[in-house]
Specification:
With 209 residues, this protein is of the alpha/beta class. 46% of the residues lie in helices and 16% in strands. A five-stranded parallel sheet has the order 3-2-1-4-5, with helices on both faces. Strand 4 (177-184), helix 7 and strand 5 form a beta-alpha-beta unit. Helix 3 (49-72) packs parallel to helix 4 (105-116). The protein starts with a helix and ends in a 9-residue tail after the last strand. The relative contact order is 0.17. GO terms for molecular function: hydrolase activity. Residues 1-24 form the signal peptide. It holds the Pfam family Acid_phosphat_B. This is Hydrolase.
């Protein structure tokens, strides 16, 4: 395990602990970021935040025209959906470990356009089920309308991540949705089909999980 991945795994534990405290604390305390947590975020990675945001924006600049065209061509009775990964896709996981974690703005802007035009948003993540509630709250807090959130149960933790995520997209289709786009930052987010288009955000050769 690389030092970066070890730092991130430790930081996710910090986020989970912070979430527990935040849920029990007054509402105005939930958005407070401690100095030590910020320092951990600053030292966690080698990827420049501004570069990451620029690169994410470039991908979303490709996605948005397609989505506008596809949404405008919605067939009668068609239920459209977009599937998103979470870590370093919809949320800025590796660039700040406050709770709630901030949204990845280029992705949030696209998501807001879609949800304002009747598209359902589904989130398929490798996060464990134990932090389902905190993840759901975080997404909603940031402005995402969550039509469904898929997290890994106990037995899912032993499955191949790509196969697990593919199965969740198939489940969404079985509920009558047409997945017009699948957006993530890892090959495991996007492989396996069950989406009309895929858009890959940068992970810089695995530096962002």
């Amino acid at each position: 395990m690389s030092s970066r991945h070890l730092a991130r795994r430790t930081a996710v534990t910090v986020v989970s602990a912070a979430a527990l405290v935040a849920m029990a604390a007054p509402a105005d305390a939930a958005t407070t970021t401690s100095t030590s947590t910020t320092a951990a975020a600053a030292s966690a990675g080698d990827v420049d935040y501004a570069t990451w945001q620029k690169d994410c924006q470039a991908v979303m600049n490709q996605a948005l025209p397609y989505l506008k065209q596809r949404i405008a061509a919605t067939k009668p009775g068609e239920k459209q959906a977009i599937v998103f990964d979470i870590d370093n896709t919809t949320l800025e996981t590796d660039f700040g470990f406050s709770y709630p974690q901030p949204a990845n703005k280029p992705v949030l802007d696209v998501a807001k356009y879609a949800q304002e035009h009747g598209v359902s948003l589904f989130f398929v993540t490798a996060r464990p089920g134990i932090i389902y509630t905190f993840t759901d709250y975080n997404l909603r807090y940031d402005g995402y309308k969550v039509s469904g959130l898929y997290v890994r149960g106990l037995f899912d933790l032993f499955k191949d991540v790509a196969a697990y995520k593919t199965a969740q997209r198939a489940d969404i289709e079985n509920k009558g949705y047409t997945i017009i786009a699948n957006i993530g930052n890892s090959a495991t987010d996007l492989s396996g089909g069950h989406a009309e288009k895929t858009y890959k955000l940068p992970d810089y050769n695995g530096q962002l999980s």
